[in-house]
Amino acid sequence: MDKEIRVRFAPSPTGNLHIGGARTALFNWLFARHNGGSLILRIDDTDRERSTEESTRGILSALRWLGLDWDEGPDAGGSYGPYYQSQRSEFYTEASQELLEQGMAYKCYCTADELADRRKQARAEGKAPRYDGRCRELTAQERAEKESEGYRSVLRLCVPDTGETKVPDLLRGDVAFNNDVLDDFIIMKSDGTPTYNFACVIDDAKMHISHIIRAEEHLSNTPKQILIYKALGYPLPVFAHVSMILAPDHSKLSKRHGATSVEEFRALGYLPEALINYLALLGWSPEGEEEILSLSELVRQFSMERVGKTAAIYDVKKLTWMNGHYLNKKDMDDVIDLVIPYFQERNLIPQQLNTEEMAYLRQVVGAVRTRVKTLAEVADASEYFYKDDFSYEEKGVRKHFRKENAAEYLKKASEKLADIEEFDLETTENAYRELSEELGVKAGAIIHPTRMALSGRTMGPGLFDIMVILGKDKTMERLNRAIDFISSLDEM
Predict the structure, then answer these.
(1) Active-site annotation holds for 395
(2) Exposure check for the chain: N or C terminus, fewer CB within 10 A?
(3) Of 120, 127, 189, 255, which one is the catalytic site residue?
(4) Predicted confidence (pLDDT) per residue in 145-168, tens digit
């Protein structure tokens, strides 16, 4: 590529960073880094009613958490700022005035009610509801009269009535739109603010954006933007519209399908490296079959040629599996730092841990983390190491506590463990192997009810790991509690 690569991510701060937006940001970031280009972050906050500073802060925080940085933009500066659209009104006013003076745009005084009536009439006549261009032909005197009568005006672009506007798309080839369905669309509102299509063209041109990589939903906006580029004599960037992310049922992804924002995944205990890896595979194919790819490897491999045209299907199960992989490979010190807030949220540990408490936490996390997939699940899987008043899983009660001899086996196990002086993995396991031989039963007949007694759960770390972490006294207490519980079942 001969010209400098300059791409942009331009979110509207009207809510959290959706995973679709995060993928757009990632694709732009990877494209820039792979080609030695620059990523510009611009906040498209011209929607005054819905844009908030809180959303802006949230988006910046989410991008940083994902590990995506920007070369120009908020907190980074640059030569083509400001990087908030709300601070760039002079550029829009100047461009709109230029179009007005050249006869490429005109003031429209039609009221909202008038426009609604005409749309209704057009539909009744079986026509497409489009602006009929009547204000384009107003004389200077008619405009003066409208102004004197207090009519407010918007600014509309003069769009050709015939022909078509082609969108050259890097992924889809030329996509043609008939001009007669575009009508003379508004570029400046009556309050002096620009419309989305107008503002983004001015900003992309002023910021020398070379490639616009964005979601497929913006494809219908692109012919209008191209008409603005041409009217102002700006060179066209390269467009690439990435296919949508759909839910597993191929419907539009929404909250009913679960977490859909970066902030939600972060709160649920997903790791940024897992989310980045997963998002990269939504619509892009790596060179080989390996799907676990580091950020540096993604940068090395990324190209738009490997971005597909078909919709990507959102699969949270695959993301969760991938997160489990990264969690298990992560350095233990890092995992401890990450899980502490989740433990504190459940009131399992104090705000400040002493040396003994930290050592215990490391034992617990080391035992459970290979069997869970998220940071939140680490805390959930660890509760019985900290709480004695847990309940027993109903399915475990039915399967293991209601079996004949369950209480007897636990009593025998308790007696066997009471004689152990060095309470470690080897001695506890040997004790259970010996007991199974003495009773003439399989080890599982004793191990499964013991697991229920110690944790209240049917699944978890190795039983003898649980015993050693809990310690002899706590193990004995819980065995006795379970024996009493089973006896109460017999009385019911």
Answers:
(1) no
(2) C
(3) 255
(4) 999 999 999 999 999 989 999 999
